[in-house]
Design goal:
This protein is of the alpha+beta class. It folds into two domains: 203 residues, no CATH class; 148 residues, Heat Shock Protein 90. It is built from twelve helices and 13 strands. A five-stranded mixed sheet has the order 8-10-11-13-12, covered by helices on one side. The protein has a four-stranded antiparallel sheet with strand order 4-3-6-5. A two-stranded antiparallel ribbon has the order 1-2. It is rod-shaped.
Length: 472
């Protein structure tokens, strides 16, 4: 269990590292595509603005600048509105609202960009956004502050001697806060009455969809690689656990077989030495008793060897049976009576058949072995006086035989493997009952050779019900 948990933990850890690496790669690709999207539209926009300037000799804000200049001149000429070197809070708010409104209503850039994007065959559905960073009134040599955005205040101001940017110049581009926004134009506008800094931004709401579409191939490849690695790990882990299970079964089989074979061999050895004793050789009754014991143990030893050899033969060749038409109710009755007599009334057995006199193609020898194995297990795996109920009936052109006992029962986990070769249900890895783990495997093989099947229904402590179906 410790090795299993270690392998599982290492596998999960490795998969998590792979997933983390793939996420980092995908994030890098996403950021790269996002930057390329921004760069592409920024370059296209700059080309479009240059084209507009060549055709119309304007940057699209001439009308807005004219209206703002007139408004600024009017305010500066009204001495009642200016007190010292400042405006009232309400006047500043009204003025900046007017500037923003004019910039939005009188700009010609958005319409021109939309037509240019359509001409280039790229997405033209964007929303224009104008961000006013600073606005000042200029009265001769006096500057009257009106508005200064907090973000713009943190940006680098021109050093002494650098001079003032001219109209239409562009400062270092900043990345807008929203990822769908692309800065197209930013700069200062200045004349005799005002100084204005603002940014023109285009906002693509479908940008994430476009970027996702461009990264879909990389994302799909990463997901596929993760699924492949996880699948390979699960298959490898499952195979490893199966190999470990089979190895444990093999070890248990060897131990059980050694124990089962040593019992009759030890008995025969002791009996042989007993016959060498002078007091035994002179007693015909003791000799006969010892000879019978040797014969009985020899038969048991021969049965064990034959069972192992038959299992080996099944693995190499197709299981062959010799079927004959027999009355199944009669054969079942004979098998049960014979078993009860042979085990010395070791269990309380009851029979209830409703086969309606049908005949079934059976190999009598192998079928007898099948039923005997089920009855033997019912007796062997019982911690109290065994009670076995055998029931038989027909259903869907099949003969159904049920063997129910009051034994120790079988857990759900063990029920999945009890028909496997060499498998033996155990508790705490300690086998309380003797056996080679071949009895139910034998039952399964015989049932399948007759074209049928065998299933089990059981609860620990409540007994088990084995159901054999054979077509007729």
């Amino acid at each position: 269990m410790k090795i299993r948990n270690t392998i599982l933990a290492l596998g999960i850890f490795s998969i998590l590292i792979l997933v983390a690496a793939q996420l980092i790669i995908i994030r890098g690709i996403w950021n790269q595509k996002d930057e390329l999207f921004n760069l592409r539209y920024r370059l296209f926009s700059q080309d479009a603005l240059s084209r507009m300037n060549r055709i119309w000799s304007t940057d699209g804000f001439d009308t807005a600048r004219f209206l703002i200049s007139r408004k600024s001149q009017y305010i500066l000429s009204d001495t009642s509105m200016i007190k010292g070197d400042s405006l009232s809070s309400q006047s500043r708010q009204d003025l900046i609202d007017y500037v923003k409104k004019v910039l939005y209503m009188e700009e010609d850039v958005s319409q021109f960009l939309s037509k240019e994007f359509e001409r280039m065959g790229i997405d033209k559905n964007f929303k224009p956004k104008i961000v006013v960073n600073r606005f000042e009134l200029i009265n001769q040599d006096q500057t009257i502050p009106v508005y200064l955005s907090p973000e713009f205040a943190k940006r680098r101001q021109p050093r002494p001697g650098e001079g003032r940017p001219q109209r239409g110049t562009r400062p270092v581009m900043r990345q807008p806060g929203r990822t769908s926004e692309i800065l197209v134009w930013g700069g200062r506008n200045e004349n005799n009455y005002y100084r204005l800094d603002f940014d023109y931004i285009i906002d693509f709401k479908d940008k994430q969809k476009v970027v996702l579409k461009e990264t879909a191939a990389s994302l799909g490849l990463s997901l596929f690689s993760i699924l492949v690695v996880v699948s390979l790990f699960l298959v490898t882990y499952r195979n490893l656990m199966e190999e470990k299970r089979l190895s444990n079964l093999k070890t248990d089989f060897i131990n059980n077989m050694t124990h089962e074979l040593k019992t009759p061999l030890s008995t025969i050895t002791v009996a042989g030495r007993t016959l060498e004793m002078p007091q035994i050789r002179s007693n015909d009754e003791k000799i006969l008793e010892t000879a019978k014991l040797i014969g009985k143990q020899s038969i048991h030893l021969n049965q064990l060897i034959n069972m192992i050899l038959e299992i080996s033969m099944w693995e190499r060749t197709q299981f062959q049976i010799d079927k004959k038409k027999v009355k199944i109710e009669e054969i079942m009755h004979d098998i049960v009576v014979s078993f009860k007599t042979g085990c010395g009334n070791c269990a309380e057995l009851s029979q209830k058949y409703n086969f309606n006199g049908i005949s079934v193609d059976l190999d009598i020898v192998y079928f007898t072995t099948l039923v005997n194995n089920l009855l033997s297990n019912a007796v062997k795996y019982s911690d109290k006086d065994p009670v076995i109920n055998i029931e038989g009936y027909t259903e869907d052109n099949k003969a159904v035989i049920k063997v129910a006992d009051n034994g120790i029962g079988i857990s759900k986990a063990d029920q999945k493997h009890i028909f496997d070769k060499f498998y033996r249900a155990s508790t705490g890895n300690i086998h309380k009952y003797k056996g080679l783990g071949l009895g139910l495997y034998y039952v399964k093989k015989i049932a399948e050779a007759h074209g049928g099947d065998v299933t089990v229904s059981s609860k620990p402590g409540k007994g088990s019900i084995f159901t054999v179906t054979i077509p007729y």
